[in-house]
Design brief:
The protein is of the alpha/beta class. The chain is 51% helix and 14% strand. α4 crosses α10 (196-206), α7 packs across α10 and α8 (166-173) packs across α9 (177-191).
Length: 219
């Protein structure tokens, strides 16, 4: 029998957590392993429980959900974060992806989408609400002749898209921080990207963030 997907719920409203628990617990391949009511608590729970997935509200006490995402990933590097929110602005989606989040579900569709999102991110696939996905990616148009990135530049780009810091990338590749910054500059020059969110969206479209080992971050 396959191991169930272990889910940690984080929302400051107990009634919302109860509803999510009922939805997830009804699925044979999932289980709720914990609940948190604020951003500080969810980080501590992630460290203790090492869940496969955290379903996280953006509007959380003690620092907010957005700031909690990289802290959750520091506490449990193999955990994938799905944001559950009322915010239907594509800018929020971009920020979540740039912070290291894997999914974005709107609360009005939670009864259907949260289960789909949990399964999707567990399989190494991003999940973005269908009404927002097109808007998030519409500003990136695949080029007929993509700019040629070297193998090392692609590696650095992938780490940047995952949310790793320059220091973490330098450590992983046995390079100096200045060398990593140089690679970052060359990538920006070739692709025309200046913001991390643009790199994330490019990596999503080109498949750099779909493999099973693409979720670790050192923010």
């Amino acid at each position: 029998m396959n191991r169930k997907i272990r889910v940690l719920l984080a929302d400051d409203h107990a009634v919302v957590r109860a509803g999510l628990r009922a939805i997830i617990s009804a699925e044979g391949d999932m289980e709720v392993v914990g609940e948190s009511g604020d951003a500080k608590e969810v980080v501590a729970q992630a460290h203790e429980l090492k869940p496969d997935v955290v379903v996280l509200d953006l509007s959380m006490p003690e620092g907010g959900g957005m700031r909690a995402i990289p802290r959750i990933l520091e506490a449990s590097a193999n955990t994938r974060v799905i944001v559950l929110t009322m915010h239907d602005d594509p800018a929020y989606v971009r920020s979540v992806l740039a912070a290291g989040g894997w999914g974005y579900v709107l609360k009005h569709a939670a009864d259907v989408d949260v289960v789909r999102a949990v399964r999707s991110v567990q399989r190494g696939r991003r999940f973005i609400d269908a009404t927002l996905a097109a808007a998030v990616l519409e500003d990136i148009t695949p080029q007929a002749t993509p700019p040629q990135l070297s193998r090392r530049e692609l590696t650095v780009l992938r780490y940047l898209a995952q949310g790793h810091s320059y220091q973490a990338i330098a450590n992983k590749l046995c390079l100096s921080i200045k060398t990593v910054e140089s690679y970052r500059a060359r990538i920006s020059q070739k692709l025309g990207f200046r913001k991390r969110a643009e790199i994330v969206r490019y990596a999503l479209m080109t498949g750099l963030l779909t493999s099973e080992d693409s979720h670790q971050t050192d923010l």
